[in-house]
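Course assignment 3, question 2. Fill in each field.
Student: A.L.
Task: Predict the tertiary structure for the chain below.
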Amino acid sequence: ALDRLLESRGNAVNRVVRILVDDDKLLARVTKRFEEQGRKDDNPETFSKRLEKYYEDTAPLVPIYAERGILVEVDGMGSIEAVAAAIDAALKETA
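Answer field:
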């Protein structure tokens, strides 16, 4: 559906960045942020629902984009600065 919409507007997906993270470590980060900052959307229950939704709806697209040669994977377990730099570099690559 996204491809058709973009095509109708003269656009296309030309790069997909997948940020690789360890689910358990990500849960620990979210839980810590919830405890320290009290953000309602960072509680473990909400995180689990989001992760489930990711595996249902988004993860199945990974092989499709990989087959098209437009998928770039970035290690998301580093510092914010390192991950941001890796994403920036990935987006600057040519497909």
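Instructor remarks: The radius of gyration is 16 Å. The longest strand covers residues 16-20.
Grade: pending
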